[in-house]
Write the C-alpha cells for this entry.
Amino acid sequence: MHQNPQHPAKPFDIIVVGAGIIGLATAYRAYKQGHNVMVIERNSRPTGASIQNFGHACFTGQADELQAMVAKSREGWISAAQDAGFWAAQPGTLIPATSDVEMSVLEQFANHRGQEQVTLLSPSEVEQRLGHQRLKPVGGALLPLDMRVNPREAAATLAQWLEAQGVTFQWNTTLRSTADGVVDTSRGQWEAQRVVLCPGVNLSYLLPDLAQAEGVRSCTLSMALVERPDHIASDFCMLTGTSLARYDGFSAMASVPELRQELQQREPELVECIANLMVTAIPEGLLVGDSHDYHDSPTPFISEETASLLQSKAAAYLGVDKLRVKQRWQGVYADSPSTNLVVHRPDAKTVVAVVASGIGMTLSFGLAEHILDQF
Ligand SMILES: Cc1cc2nc3c(=O)[nH]c(=O)nc-3n(C[C@H](O)[C@H](O)[C@H](O)COP(=O)(O)OP(=O)(O)OC[C@H]3O[C@@H](n4cnc5c(N)ncnc54)[C@H](O)[C@@H]3O)c2cc1C
C-alpha cells in the first residue's frame, strides 16, 4: 500500500478518480474545505469530454429542479477561475428568434423565469449583438447569468493550480477497482477515508453493471473549430431554435411542441442528426456544433454531410457565406435516456458521480458540493 507523501502515517481524506471537470471541481471543493486530497487520472492531462465541449455554462436553460445546483455551480466557477486564473466570462447567451414560434417560447420563458434571468431583445438589438443584418430575426433573448470558459484551458489550469496548492496528482494511473476506501490501481494501492469516482463515459468500463442499470451509453457529437469572422465578438455565445427544443428549462414551455413541428418542416436535416446548433467563441476561433448520436460502442467516424450541414447553418446565423474550418473532432460524453445524473454510493466510503447528459460543465461545481454532501 502506497502512503500519503505529505502525511506518511495518515491516509488521504479524499481520493478523486478522474481529472475531468467533475473530478477536478470535487477536488477543488474538497481542498477548499481543508481536506487532504489526491486525484488519480489514467492520462497525463485532461483529455475527455471536459476539453471537447463548448465551454458553455448554460445555467438558465436547465430545468427548474436543477436551478439550486446550477446557482452553486456558477458561484464555484467564479471562485475557481479567480483562484486558478483561467478565463471565465459572463457575456450572456444570445438566442436569436428566427420565427414567431421561437419568439413565443422565449416570451414564455421570460415570463416564467423573470427579467433577471431572461432579457427579451428586439430585432435590431439582436442584429447589433450578431454584428450583421443578414439573418432578419423576429427578435430574441439574452440570458445574462450564463457563463463561458475556454474548455481547452479551464480543466488543465485548474489541475495545475490544485497541484501547486499541494493536492497530490497521480497521472498516468488507471483505477481498477475500489471498495471501503482502498483504491487498486495500475500503480498499486492507496487508501482514503472517502473515494469519489468521476470516470465520465468510462463508467461503462469501470462499473458495467451500474452503467447498464442506469442506461449509460456514449453520445458522440460532430464539432468544429472555425475562424472567427471579424464582426463576431470575441466572447460570443449563441443558442438557436434547436436548443430551445432540447434543454429542459426551455422545452417545458407551452409552445415547444409547436416549435418541434416547425423545426421538423423547416429544418428536417437538423432534426435528423439531432442537432443543437450553437456557437461559442474562444481565443482560437469559434466552436461550432453539434449533432448527437447514441450508442454503447460509438463509431469513430465523422460524417462529412453532418459536419458541413452544421457549418452552413451556423454560417447563416453568423452572417457569412462560408466558415473556414481549422479543426474537427468527434466529442464523446456519457448519456442516459432515463437520467441526467448518476450519483451512486456502493459503500459508505465511496461515491460514483457521472453527468449523463451534455450539461457537465454547467453542473460541475454544484454537483461537486452535492457529491461531498453524500458522506
Ligand atoms: C462536444 C461536447 C459538447 C459539450 N457541450 C457542453 C456545454 O456546452 N455545456 C455543458 O455543460 N456541458 C457540455 N458537454 C458535456 C460536458 O463536457 C461533460 O458532461 C463533462 O465534461 C463531463 O465531465 P467528466 O469529468 O464527468 O468527464 P471527462 O471530462 O470525460 O473526465 C473523466 C476522466 O476520468 C478519467 N478516467 C476514467 N476512467 C478512469 C480510470 N479507471 N482510472 C483513472 N482515470 C479514469 C478519464 O481519463 C477522464 O480524464 C459537452 C460535451 C461534449 C463532448
Observations:
- The first strand starts at residue 12 and ends at 17.
- The longest helix spans residues 67-84.
